[in-house]
Design goal:
The chain is α/β, with parallel strands linked by helices. The longest helix has 18 residues, at 51-68. β9 (176-177) and β10 form a beta hairpin. Helix content is 32%, strand content 18%. Residues 183-217 are annotated as: Disordered.
Length: 401
């Protein structure tokens, strides 16, 4: 395990700048959208026309622009249900750069849009610092976006994902998989290991490296995946729930790290760098199927690491989690399972083991005078250090005796 200690000065400078069937869908461009300088964010949402979807995406767009600036981003909406009329013509003209309308799913929409823009003046590689593929059931309004982007840059990773809080990561996993009882794993299975040292604010700390040993994929994930492949003894939905439970546990913010290099970032809200785009959408030829993108996130980190010779190809940002509302919109089908199985067979050597490769601490511990302050939504990102809140509660209790 690699543990790296970096203090805050570099981040504070970087974080304040943003830079950077028919299965065919119809692409339309909003010509009235204002021109923008290069190296922005592309905010890409697949959306239906439900009122809660419209309200949440609009709320997120408003928040992102209020934090990062009106010219920070381009918005692209892929309407798999409904059309732009459902969103209000004035809002659409003011906010949406491009849109798709037709059947599909997020990464198929994204691949089609990427290919259309390729070799043009508005190619994604030349226009955007990151392409942010967002699910519609995310509430970003409590997330520190400048810090999220600053740490994404510091990670030097090709794909970066936020960690998640909320209903989307509170799954209680079943006790049995494939007819066998699962042994409980310690929470520290994927937690960073190795000695942790601290220094004063004025003291410059050089990165400290401790050799990392790769661990085998968790038996939980292996068993769950095997059930999906064999589809026997237990239903496919039950087995997928087990795997999803393991993934959600992995994607909760680690109290020990500001961010982690990992071999997994889920499809829910990844930031794709320009270097990742051609590899994901061109080179990984069988990773995105016509009927599903299941399996893509299980292989893209190691696939990128292999193609780019870049071991820290993926990262999860622990210090700035996103609220996952978990509307459970995706309905599992045989096509999803078939796509997952095909990716497994063709790219098995790249399959994720849900491993933490390094734990990075960028900022020192934050002094909080009143423990109740940590309960405020805007301060939850302060709970980053293991045992910090418990120790503060104990100290406060002792002070009142």
């Amino acid at each position: 395990m690699v543990t790296v200690l970096l203090w805050a000065a570099t981040l504070l400078v970087l974080a304040n700048s943003i830079g950077p069937d028919d299965n065919k869908a119809d692409l339309s461009t909003n010509a009235s959208a204002p021109a923008a300088p290069a190296r922005r964010l592309l905010l890409f949402w697949p959306v239906d026309n439900a009122k809660r979807t419209v309200a949440q995406v609009k709320k997120n767009v408003q928040y992102i622009r209020s934090v990062l600036g009106d010219d920070c981003c381009h918005v692209m909406l892929a309407h798999y249900k409904g059309n732009p009329i459902d969103w209000g013509s004035q809002w659409y003209r003011d906010n949406v750069k491009q849109s798709y309308t037709g059947p599909g799913f997020k990464f198929k929409f994204m691949r089609d849009a990427y290919m259309k823009a390729k070799n043009t003046e508005e190619s994604w590689e030349s226009t955007y610092e990151y392409v942010w593929g967002l699910d519609s059931d995310l509430d970003i309004t409590g997330t520190n976006l400048t810090k999220l982007l600053g740490m994404a840059r510091l990670s030097n990773s090709l794909i970066v994902g936020p960690t998640f809080v909320g209903k989307g990561v509170t799954w209680v996993k079943p006790s049995f998989v494939h007819g066998k009882k699962i042994r409980k794993k310690k929470a520290a299975k994927h937690a960073p290991k190795g000695p942790r040292t601290h220094a004063s604010h004025a003291q410059k700390v050089e990165p400290q490296h401790v050799d990392a040993q790769s661990s085998k994929a968790s038996s939980l994930q292996e068993q769950a995946h095997q059930v999906i492949m064999e589809q026997s003894d237990v239903s496919a939905s039950r087995s997928r729930e087990e795997l999803q439970s393991s993934i959600w546990t992995f994607e909760r913010p680690s109290p020990k790290c500001d961010y982690r290099h990992t071999d997994f970032v889920e499809l829910t809200a990844p930031l794709l760098s320009p270097a990742a785009l051609p590899i994901v959408f061109n080179d990984c030829t069988d990773c995105i199927h016509d009927s599903s993108d299941w399996g893509l996130d299980m292989v893209w980190c190691k696939f990128l690491a292999d193609r780019k010779k870049h071991s820290s190809s993926c990262a999860l940002i622990d210090a700035t989690p996103v609220n996952h509302l978990n509307w459970k919109q995706a309905k599992i089908s045989k096509a999803f399972l078939a796509a997952n199985k095909d990716v497994w067979h063709k790219y098995r050597k790249y399959w994720s083991g849900l491993k933490t490769l390094s734990c990075i601490i960028v900022e020192p511990a934050v002094k909080v005078n009143n423990v109740e302050e940590l309960e405020l939504p805007g301060n939850r990102h302060l709970i980053r250090k293991a045992g910090r809140r418990k120790e503060m509660l104990k100290a406060e209790g002792a002070g009142h005796t």
